[in-house]
Amino acid sequence: MAIEASKIELSLGPVYFNWSPQKLEDFYDRIANEAPIARVHIGEIVCGKRSPLNAGALARSAERLRQAGKTVVWSGLIAPVNKRERGMIRDLIATGDEIEVNEMGGMIHLKGQPFTAGPFLNLYNENALALMARLGCTRWCARVELPLNSIRTMARALPTLGTELFGFGRLPLAHSGRCYHARQHGLTKDSCQYVCDRDPDGASIETLDGEPLLAYNGVQTLSHSLQVCSMNAKALSEAGVCALRLSPHDIDMVAVAEAFRDHLDGKLDSEAFVSRLVGYLPGWPISNGYLSGRAGREWVAI
Amino acid sequence: MLELVSPAGTPASLKAAVQAGADTVYCGLRDETNARNFPGLNFSATELAEGVDFAHRHGSRVLLAINTFARAGAGIAWRSAVDIAAQYGADAIVVADIAVLDYAAQTYPEMRLHLSVQAAAGTPEAIEFYASRFGVRRVVLPRTLSIPEIRTLKNEVAVEIEVFAFGGLCVMIEGKCDLSSFVTGRSPNLSGVCSPAECVTYSKDGNERSARLSGLTIQREQTGKPVGYPTICKGKFRDGNSVGHVFEDPVSLNTVELLPDLIDAGVTALKIEGRQRGKAYVEQVTREFRTAIDAVTSGTGTCDHAGLKSLAEGHRSTTGAFRKSWR
């Protein structure tokens, strides 16, 4: 079942970075009021140590987004490490709100409730996706390294599921037990002093030739470049994609969302879209290699 | 009784590991279904059958690693690997993909299933999911847990625990790491390789030697010092004004001094990494660990494991996340 091109939605992924409660609330306030985004994924998914700091701000933001007519989806931790963190997904499921599962442990708390399979679950083929669908999965966001050919095969095999593609933002590439912000500041994870709050988009590191390559964000490692999906609505629809996911950064995300919307609505061609989008970025390179099955850091004309 | 699980990239390594005292040997088929999909490595179905026969005659077991994720639209290769394991009598399969687990559980209900580290199951809930849905009997834990955490986990799950004991050290949670595909286009989950050798080049510039991965320089040392293999998570990077190993130094894992603690924490099996290593390496590490395990379990104390130290990458080793301070 091809998605009608005009119906392709934008969704907002969870914030990966350690933003202050005030910054989070201001950010979601603008999203609620101004952004052409239908679904907003919210929740601390990177580091359970941060949760007590931002839980209140996220709950207030969720309410604010709902009042503005957005669909709010609570997104669970990628790698819970202690009892409190392990319980977080169970508590989210108990609220009855929409849920995105990012770790297989979440599955045992679901009693048939519909859920979104997040991009951190290892779903690489149509049989794995079909199994998740039998367990209540109604929507999924493809893992970032999956090529479009695989996504198309999976989406076509499960036409009743909503398929999201990681459309914008630094690519979440790896997750560790070790905190790199702590390590680079001479601390350990247990005594981290929350130094990850100094880098609202992650801290970029360069190769020995001086080329920026990756960015660390606490226990997470991201790409330095931002993935930009510049496929038009017709091409996305043909691949079975129903939504592009935009990953929040400390830039004008409303303007970013509007550029994507204009492109999906055919008001901008792909070239004009990319050049408008790049204008919102503080000199960051863009990439899209994963979509065509190449190295993720490459930019390939599609 | 702690089970020693040794790697075998070739039939010759399998025999060497068995003769050196491995309780169990793990290997993979010569295709993309296993996470050491390197040229010149791995087993044909016939070689697997011969390996199983040899191991069984010497009282050892063989595990078949089918531990990559099936490519969309191409699942037949992974299902066929499961069929081969069943047909040729592998004692268990080591699997990461829920689709492959589901196929094995449905088709061969009596087959023993081990959950690969690539499945990244590090919580009691995740392990319970795999155990209750697919009947998984053993989990290979992600290399992120400390020994007290392993003890707590063991008390909450009904499956056996296997941990990595020696060899290459993944710094990132395995099965959730796309660093290699971001740089080279190929990764453990997509193609069974990490930072593949065909993407690596070395060069000498004046009194320095460098190693590059897909053209990116991420190792550089003065002549005379060893240059590490340019795996991304062990690479050198510039972070502001400083240059160093941001993620991890070029070290490898060695837990030999932790054996009593691992036994006490309820670990069932110790896994030696390195199906890509040669027969002599496999033989030596297996023999050292056999001696160490026997010394600890018979109460004769520990011995000097100098031999293991010389086998570590760059002759430097770590106990990794088993000690909490690593984080």
TrEMBL record, chain B:
Belongs to the peptidase U32 family. UbiU subfamily. Pathway: Cofactor biosynthesis; ubiquinone biosynthesis. The keyword Iron applies. Forms a heterodimer with UbiV. [4Fe-4S] cluster binds at residues 170, 177, 194, 233. Keywords: 4Fe-4S, Iron, Iron-sulfur, Metal-binding, Ubiquinone biosynthesis. Pfam families: Peptidase_U32 (PF01136). It comes from the Bacteria. This is Ubiquinone biosynthesis protein UbiU. Required for O(2)-independent ubiquinone (coenzyme Q) biosynthesis. Together with UbiV, is essential for the C6-hydroxylation reaction in the oxygen-independent ubiquinone biosynthesis pathway. Its cofactor is [4Fe-4S] cluster.
